[in-house]
Amino acid sequence: MTASTAVRVSVTLLGSFSLRLDGRPVRKWRAGKARSLFQYLLVHRDRVVLRDKLHEVLWPHSDWSPNSSSLKVAMHALRQILQTSPDGTNTSGVRIVHQDFGYALYADGISVDVDEFEAMVEAGRAADKVGDTPRAVAAYRAAMEVYQGDFLPGDSADWIVEQREWCKSLALRALDRLSTEAARVGDFDQLVRWCRRTIELDPYRESAYQMVMSAHGRFGELAAVRRWHDMCTRRLAEELGVRPNQETERAYFAAMRGEGRAAAPLRAVPGPRVVRPHRALAIRDAS
């Protein structure tokens, strides 16, 4: 990477929030809406966001007035944090410009984990379309390395929830593809790994339970099969008030009967344990 394209601004939004300017972490955010303002402008960077829209995002239950000073105060605090002046000059690589009744954020040499994640998922899709399975799998694996948790976990603003669910849907599609490919090639260690990550993200996704039960059943690990089935049944009943579908029940009974069991011992498949977040991965209850 040349000096002109070197990363000056690095932002993490998945699993936790962090901002680094020229390698230095920004740890002190002033009280108020400066951080939320930065996050929204960052996701919508390179385009003008009108003042009334920003007010709606930051103060959703308050009526907006052109004479309101709240946004000005938040913008002043943000510019101080980013070392950015009102005329757009700066020393941090980030510029916030006031134009056309709104604000636009621009950044030189910026790296945002959400962008990288979405690009890797799209690269996997593109490879799948041309039948390049190895390249697709590599892209999906890279995407899941970047995906370290929910988008801005803990925040409940509407725009954040929408982005969070979008990112989660992409992650689940990548995991579905990785699980399917692992099953196809008989890599049962990886199959269980991807299914467990799927269940961490979506504890009601029955297809993941079906695949992991089948994997354990192949090795005759009937106690593990039963534990995964019990976990699926309990979660669906207690949290959604439904029973497992017919496909899940068929997968369970087939695994318990030993259908598809390996003729000779192969690689051991790790048994189920209490499902915990993968690194910073946050498990959200279904709304």
TrEMBL record:
Residues 1-107 form the OmpR/PhoB-type domain. PROSITE patterns: OMPR_PHOB. Residues 1-107 bind DNA. GO terms for molecular function: DNA binding. It comes from the Bacteria. SUPFAM superfamilies: C-terminal effector domain of the bipartite response regulators, TPR-like. Keywords: DNA-binding. Signal peptide: none annotated. The keyword Nucleotidyltransferase does not apply. Belongs to the AfsR/DnrI/RedD regulatory family. PANTHER family: TRANSCRIPTIONAL REGULATOR REDD-RELATED (PTHR35807). This is Transcriptional regulator.
